[in-house]
Amino acid sequence: MSGTLVMARLTVREAARRKLLLALLIITIVVITVTVWGFWRLFQLTLEPAGSRDYLSPVEFRAFASQILITVMFLFTFVLALSSVFTASPSIGGELESGVALAMLTRPISRAEIVLGKWLGFAVLAAVYVAGAAGVEFILVNWVTSYMPPHPFQFIAYMVGVTWTVMTFTLLLSTRVPSIAGGIIGLGAYGLAWMGGIAYSAGIVLHLSAVETAGNITRLLFPSDGLWHGAIYALEPAVIIAGLAGSGRARAANPFEATAAPPPAYLAWCVAWVVVVLGLAVWSFRTRDV
């Protein structure tokens, strides 16, 4: 366990040395500044006299605000996926290519501790960043508009789950695949999972059982999209959910709307998926010749 914690601390330091945290901080500040200004401008429309052309009722404002916030957070998810891929892909494969891992393996630390420590370091970084960035966004939006998403803490938990999914899979790839190839495969898997989610929803709407089944299998094999829909649901106010429930199947294919939260069985599957993939990463690195 001590070796795992040492590796986790080194992983965090390495991320800081590569200016990754600084780059994410700059991107986050820019995005938050622009979106908060946009929310403030949208909120001004609720202050117009009722009946005027630009007037928004409080209900309309919450509906608009939730959809804008979901769109912003989708872009945020893509940034998280990119960051996870390009930090985890060289974490082991890159060190093997450079010879750093060989020097590390001569010390009293096991290969399992190396993998688990790197995963722990990345997992902590991801959780802190997601909670901090999303929390600041929500607080500032609430400050300028008095609007707060209905389930902010659930949203953060789902987003952390999305990040851990992509990061764990890419870490597994890094034990066998060169850094660049691992990053491309990891990002491609994230994109395919998103497309699989769209196929699943489209299959429901169009009554195509084969398409629905294929999409559902994709959501099980790589559960990032299922967790993303949980994050969407956490951002939707009651008026949006009621509208979705009354619109039938026609809007189910919208990738920016969710009619229900992921069931507990699916969340349990996501946890088991991360544990299994992490275990495969440990096994893969243990059995690799270096």
Structural notes for this entry:
By secondary structure, the chain is mostly helical. It has one domain (2-286). Helix content is 78%, strand content 0%. The protein starts with a helix and ends with a helix.
Task: Quote the beta fraction.
Answer: under 5%
State the secondary-structure class. Answer: mainly alpha
Low-pLDDT stretches are: none
The biggest beta sheet is recorded as: none
**Continuous helix count:** 12
N- and C-termini, Cα separation: 23 Å
Write the H/E string, N to C.
HHHHHHHHHHHH
The count of β-strands is 0
Helix percentage: over 70%
Count of distinct structural domains: 1
Radius of gyration: 21 Å
Note the overall shape. globular
Could you tell me the mean pLDDT? Answer: 81
Task: Produce the secondary structure layout.
Elements: H1 2-17, H2 20-44, H3 58-88, H4 93-98, H5 100-105, H6 111-145, H7 152-174, H8 179-206, H9 209-221, H10 224-235, H11 238-246, H12 264-286
Q: How would you sum up this structure in a few lines?
A:
With 290 residues, the protein is an all-alpha fold.
Keywords:
single chain, 290 residues, mainly alpha
